[in-house]
Amino acid sequence: LAVKDPTAVERANLLNMAKLSIKGLIESALSFGRTLDSDYPPLQQFFVVMEHCLKHGLKVRKSFLSYNKTIWGPLELVEKLYPEAEEIAASVRDLPGLKTPLGRARAWLRLALMQKKMADYLRCLIIQRDLLSEFYEYHALMMEEEGAVIVGLLVGLNVIDANLCVKGEDLDSQVGVIDFSVYLKSDDDIGGKERDVQIAAILDQKNYVEELNRQLNSTVSSLHARVDSLEKSNTKLIEELAIAKNNIIKLQEENHQLRSENTLILMKTQHHLEATKVDVEAELQTYKHSRQGLDEMYSEARRQLREESQLRQDMENELVVQVSMKHEIELAMKLLEKDIHEKQDTLIGLRQQLDEVKAINVEMYQKLQVKLLQTKQEREM
Q1: Which of 136, 205, 214, 269 has a CA between 20 and 30 Å from the CA of residue 362?
Q2: Which H or E run contains 158?
Q3: How wide is the angle at C-alpha 298 spanned by C-alphas 292 and 300, nearest 5°?
Q4: Prediction pTM value
Q5: C-alpha closest to that of 160 among 53, 22, 47, 45
């Protein structure tokens, strides 16, 4: 026997469930004889079946914290393809009680049914299969002929008047499980073939729950990996901060050393000038007391005076050089202080970034705890 494609079996099962749900909803609504509200069981089952049909073959999208599969993405695309759908999309976004994309998608389906435009909206969506390929796999129900058949069946819902209160209803936490007991009743018009289809749908639902559990396990693993990477990056930032502190200490030591050398140079220059002044005064006193050999002494004195003048000029030049070196050193000190201030600002920025990373780590840890709690609750459920 040829092995059937499991995706084709899933599409056929979903199509049969959609047929049963839409047929039962229309028949019960016509016999009911008045406007339907949110508590009407066949209407609730219809929305659950539509949700499963739209979820079939939906691609897994990686978000910041986990992997998710939501039908709000393709439904939100309708307003770009059908201008009349902009009002319903805006209404869904403005609803105050909705927190999840799945809740917004459920509200969108209810508003579309009340407008009697659901078939039109989904028809313009399945026509643009190149855009749908961003959200669905190639074997998804919305990408195959079964999706067009379901859209055609939805036209029959235009005979139903629905008055649904979307505002204030908890659409985020509703559990979309198909109640097969409604379709497994022993009626005369239901044959054995339809019973087999429904049993196959139940098995598909069980497989879907198992696959969801596997995806949740992979999500937890990815969260653990992300926490490890954040801890490593935090350790790296602490090491870089320690290196920056060591560089600042080295720069402060160099600054102190340069100040000490500057003070020592000034002291040596002053001492040299004082010694030179004392020598000149001593030579002048000796010249005054010795009058002998005036001509020779005079020439000798003039010679010595020239030498001393040259020496004084040299000393003055050296003093100018020292003064200019002092100014250059002061300028270098100012530049060094400016560099130190800039590095201190950089250190402050690094500390702020470290605080932000710590805050992100705390937030990520809290979100991880919440996600683990949700995963545990989902596993228990």
Answers
A1: 214
A2: none
A3: 100
A4: 0.48
A5: 22
**What's the token pair of residue 258?**
């340069």
Question: Which residues, 6 or more positions from 350, have their beta carbon under 8 angstroms from its beta carbon?
Answer: 237, 240, 241, 244
| Domains in the chain: boundaries | 6-185, 206-336
Q: What's the CATH class of domain 6-185?
A: mainly alpha
What's the gap between Cα 31 and its chain centre?
52
Q: How far apart are CA 142 and CA 139, in angstroms?
A: 8
Say which residues have a Cβ less than 8 Å from residue 326's Cβ, sequence separation at least 6. 262, 265, 266
List beta partners, residue 136: 58
Helices (H), the chain: 6-32, 41-55, 72-76, 78-81, 86-94, 101-115, 118-127, 129-132, 145-154, 192-289, 294-380
Tokens of 285: 């006193």
Nearest CA among 196, 249, 212, 204 for reference residue 10: 204
Residue 133 dihedral angles phi and psi, to the nearest 5°: -65, -20
Q: Are 267 and 338 in contact (CB under 8 A)?
A: no
**For residue 40, what pLDDT is reported?**
79
Cβ proximity of 36 and 163 under 8 Å: yes
The pLDDT value given to residue 1: 37
Residue by residue, pLDDT tens for the chain (381 residues) are 345 688 888 889 889 988 888 888 888 877 766 567 777 788 888 888 888 888 888 887 655 544 456 788 888 888 888 888 888 888 888 888 788 888 888 888 888 888 888 888 889 888 888 888 888 888 888 888 888 898 888 888 888 887 777 776 777 776 666 666 666 554 444 454 555 555 456 546 645 665 676 677 778 777 888 888 888 888 889 989 999 989 999 999 989 899 888 888 989 988 888 888 888 888 888 877 776 767 787 888 889 999 999 999 999 999 999 999 999 999 999 999 999 999 999 999 999 999 999 999 999 999 999 999 999 999 999
Spatial contact of 146 and 12, defined as CB atoms under 8 Å apart: yes
The residues, any chain, with a CB within 8 Å of residue 354's CB and separated by 6 or more, are 234, 237, 238, 241
